[in-house]
Amino acid sequence: MRLDPIAAPSLRRQIGLPALALLATIAVAMMLALIAGANPLATLGLIAKGAVGSKFAALETLNRATPLIFTGLAVAVAFRAKLWNIGAEAQLYAGAIVAVLLGTGALSAPMVLPVSALVAMLAGALVLLGPVMLKTRLGVDEVVTTLLLNFVMLLFVSYLLEGPMKDPAGMGWPKSAALIKEARLPRIVEGLRLHWGFALALISALLVWVIQTRTTLGFEMRAVGQNREAARFAGMPVNAVLVKTALLSGGLAALAGWSEVAGLKGHLSSDLSPGFGYTGIIVAMLALLHPLGVVATALFVAAIFVGSDSMSRAAGVPTYIADMLLATALLFMVLALMLTRYRVVWK
Amino acid sequence: MTDPRDVVMRLDRITKRFGALTAIDAISLTLRRGDVVALLGENGAGKTTLMNILFGHYVADDGRVEVFGQPLPPGNPRAALAAGVGMVHQHFTLADNLTVLDNIRLGTESLFARGTSHAAARARVERLSRDFGLAVHPDARVGSLTVGERQRVEILKALYRDARILILDEPTAVLTPQEAEALFATLRRAIAQGLSILFISHKLHEVMAIADRCVVLRHGKVVGEVATAETSGAELAAMMVGGEIALPEARPATAGAVLMRLDGVTTPDKGAAPGLKRVTLDLRAGEIVGLAGVSGNGQAALADLISGLIVPASGQITLGAPPARWSPREAIRQGIARIPEDRHKTGTIADFTLTENAVLEGYWQPGFSKAGLMDWRAAEGFAEGIIAAYDVRCPGPGARIRLLSGGNMQKLILGRVLEPGPKIILANQPVRGLDVGAIAYVQSRLIAARDGGAAVLLISEDLDEIMGLADVIHVMSEGRLSPGFPRGSKTAAELGLWMAGQGFDHAA
To answer: Phi first, then psi: what are they for B326, rounded to 5°?
Structure first.
């Protein structure tokens, strides 16, 4: 078997293969349902209904998509520059910690929301800055450092919640005190359970897109990602670009944690994120690292999670089907993307 | 000579296309026992493509190869080896960390074979190296060998595998004239032992020296097949270039002020590649300085230094304006046009458009961006200007540059660096791998820039190119720079001695 590169893939190939990947994912989903002893079509229907079948369900999906858009953007920005940030989870918690630190009375309205958002971004950026400095100065692999920092950060959060940040009125539960009302993100429409974090995520996606396509920094980030040697030769400050990329990426990931605390939960607990940082990698990869695509894939991934939860209650198929679906979707999509650019020659 | 039993290899109407480009077109060729056939052609004529088909790296679209009367299955390097075809590539395929003996045995013995005889293999290598005059120590680590010795290992490797046909791809490109002479002695011994040799080159005098017959390729077609005894270098040259393109005639220039000076510059070695050793060099307005030398003797370090990629460990760079921290960006600011050696890896970004590549090093300048925002319309206008003025054949400024041929890619780079009107031009192997037309174009642009008052530094491994274009020639050997020799004051053989490292001890 050999792979022959295709110079200019046809539009049919570019659209057809990803569509095929989606169909294959659905086929696998139906097979899984069958194995679990449920009606495959009914299971799919229940997932769809659970995700977008009612106003409540749809809003739940949008809420779930919010942190995924942020972490997806964080990963997309970094990966575009071939900076392998696997640590969005840690940066997310850095943002969440700041939301609690500044949101429980340290600041008051109207300063509290904008200031805590900015400080949260700064905190997330700083968490990623360490690994990136190690990479640019000493050549330490950032995959290892960012990944391991996730566990360090999770333990640090546990320490905070058992110690200095523990809610005295929490009946012994490891959670922080609740945010004051002024530090909470208001709902977009009164009465609907959707907070301004979602709008902020959409605006962020748009901003990232503008940065990547319209600014010199975006041009540098893409050049550094595509061919570091050529970027260096052309006079681009490669290390400075990587640092700026890290600041943006870490800041975006921090907003995920900040908006979960300030918009949804109202306090910090160590189960704040069910792996949003890692799922962000899937979201970004499915979107081909395109910032606007991230919004679409984050919605898709959120719908599968929310829909599977609801389907599981109704049909008795375990919710793990959601994880398996995402994994197969990612595998098929990666395969489809490879096949758009290469022709397989058997011999 | 016409006995068909003597035929060891026959190529029959081989054709290979890459997209719209027909790289080689219905090439037929016959090689007999004891024959030395030279495949002659300019860069891009299709020589290397043909060899890669022969050796199974590419699959031909049409035609067939027969070795000793048996058809060779396409796309299978092992089949070529088994049939007795040995290839010595332009770029060696040796493992630096293994010994000569291990490199030769590598791939010839099964991983699971029991009790392979080390002693027998060793005896065989020693016998081969004696018989063919290939002096190299079997236990030496390949990484410690010179380029000439490494080539001997490659030839030994082929002989060890019982090759009856040797294919040598540009074997002298990395050798000094003296080393090349030793190689020819080996090849003559091989012929005497009944081997056949296919010798690929674009150097006429070598072809005249070693080959019996000569097959000339141009644009992928055989344009002539002649016995070397019945032809002349001039006739071959005319065949090669088709007489239609005259290489630019360099007129003696009148040198002006020194625009850039390196004063006793030393840079650290980079692995096996030597750094600069107290190099002093003047680049003057209106003068082409040619830098000759065998590849890997410090040219890369000099190019990196002038490009801004490395800084001197000691010594000084003097420019019109005193440089700030030396960097690629600073080199661009100082008006140095840099044509890199590797246009694919260093000069361009393959998946970027022509527009993006056109502003790759100038995007930060006021014309192309304001307050951090790109002005893509201006960038596209700049790219369109280059496409028109430098005759870049492409679908348009929005096309990805990976779709372009090497020549067109080089023209875009040329436009990118020459359009701003540079004072100093660094051209590192500017015509390597280009077709004749593109070569003439690039060279005439360099000459025009020189005539316009720019200082040009031309780095090339092709001595003919240097001697044809340069007003002053320096030779590099192991990081040292020879004095400058004015145009025509040294013969190729004399320069060859400098390339081999002689003369430096006496030089001031």
So the answer is: -70, 125
Closest by Cα among B243, B198, B248 to B218 = B243
**What integer pLDDT is reported at residue B83 of this predicted model?**
87
Going from the C-alpha of B92 to that of each of A224, B141, B263, the distances in angstroms are 30, 15, 35
Contacts of B216 (CB under 8 A, 6+ apart): B40, B41, B222, B223, B224, B225, B226, B236, B239, B240
Q: What secondary structure does DSSP assign to A36-70, as a single string?
A: TTS-HHHHHHHHHHHHHSSHHHHHHHHHHHHHHHH
- pLDDT score, position A345: 77
**Closest of B342, B343, B326 to residue B334, by C-alpha:** B326
Amino acid at A23: L
User: Do B361 and A223 make contact, defined as CB atoms within 8 angstroms?
Assistant: no
Q: Is the peptide bond before A114 cis (omega within 30 degrees of 0)?
A: no
Is residue A255 less than 8 Å (CB to CB) from chain B?
A: no
For residue B155, give the nearest of B177, B176, B179 by alpha carbon.
Answer: B179
Rounded CA separation B407/A303 (Å): 51
CB contact under 8 A, B373 and A215: yes
* Predicted local confidence at residue A70, as pLDDT: 97
Q: Which residues of chain A have pLDDT under 70?
A: 7-8, 347
Q: How far is B187 from chain A (nearest CA, A)?
A: 36
Report d(CA B423, CA B337) in Å as an integer.
8
**What is the distance between the terminal CA atoms of chain B, rounded to a whole angstrom?**
56
- pLDDT recorded at residue B130: 87
Any B CB within 8 A of A156 CB:
no
Predicted local distance difference test score (pLDDT) of residue B110: 63
CATH of B4-241, one of 3.30.70.270, 3.30.420.40, 3.40.50.300, 3.60.15.10: 3.40.50.300
Rounded Cα distance, A275 and A262, in Å:
18
> What's the DSSP call for residue B87?
E
Q: Which residues of chain B have pLDDT under 50?
A: 1, 244-247, 507-508
Q: For residue B329, give the amino acid letter.
A: R
So what's the pLDDT on residue B356? 96
What is the CATH superfamily name and number for domain B248-335+422-508?
P-loop containing nucleotide triphosphate hydrolases (3.40.50.300)
Tokens 């051209």 -> residue:
B427
B321: tokens are 């304006």
Q: Residues 6 or more apart from B425 whose CB is under 8 A from it?
A: B336, B337, B339, B417, B418, B446, B449, B454, B455, B456, B457
pLDDT score of B115: 60
Q: What is the pLDDT of residue B480?
A: 92
Q: CA-CA distances (angstroms) from residue A95 to A102, A119, A153, B141?
A: 11, 8, 11, 55
Which of A216, A220, A233, A346 is the mutation pick for testing B, counting most B CBs within 10 A? A233
| Distance from C-alpha of B383 to C-alpha of B415, rounded to nearest angstrom | 9
Q: Is the CB of residue A7 less than 8 Å away from at least one CB of chain B?
A: yes
Residues of B with CB under 8 A from a CB of A: 19, 75, 307-309, 327-329, 331-332, 338, 340, 345-352, 356, 360-361, 363-364, 369, 372-374, 376, 402-403
Predicted confidence at residue B3, as pLDDT, reads: 59
* Domains of chain B, residue spans: 4-241, 248-335+422-508, 356-417
